[in-house]
Design brief:
Layout: H1 12-19, H2 25-39, E1 44-48, E2 51-56, E3 59-66, E4 71-75, H3 111-125, H4 146-154, H5 156-163, H6 167-178, H7 183-199
Antiparallel strand pairs: 1-2, 2-3, 3-4
Length: 202
Amino acid sequence: MAKQHATTSYSPAVDRYIEQAADFAKPVLLSLREIVHATCPEACETMKWNMPFFLYRERPLCHIAAFKQHCAFGIWNAALLEDNGTVLTTGAKKAMGQFGRIQSMTDLPPKKQLREIIQQAMRLNEGPTPQKRKVRAVTDVPALPEILQKVFAKQKVAAARYEALRPSHKREYIAWIVDAKKEETRDRRVAKTIERLLRSTE
């Protein structure tokens, strides 16, 4: 029987992407991120094409992106959605995704409408799944930073769930922690890592 991997819905790589975004973009990205997770608690984050993506049933659901002067939010199967033009933008305002150039929180559609769109996209992902291509897994994982070793020695449950993660998820957590330029930032990321591992499912 294949080994079961623990999953975490929040990705350190997405945290890093948002941290590096322009100040105007941070609240927009954080708001969209939380709306997706509130609407689809099973959504898992990953990075594709250097943008944060949300997966549902192991298939792309939607994505967020930040640019120099605007943000974007896209639904993977938008062409199949029923919208009647009330939320999805068309014409001159159109940008990457289907919600136009989002330059501030006031450019976001109402949460209720966003959730309805996300729910439609979820139902599409619940349909038949195309046969997956077999890909070679990358299994090399950097050594645990000393600070994580010390924390895991006390947090046995978190350590066990970390060991059950896929190699790619382990690499994301390690890179997120060792990339911290300040000690307080590193400590905050370690604490966040433990929190997410303890919330994760096996």
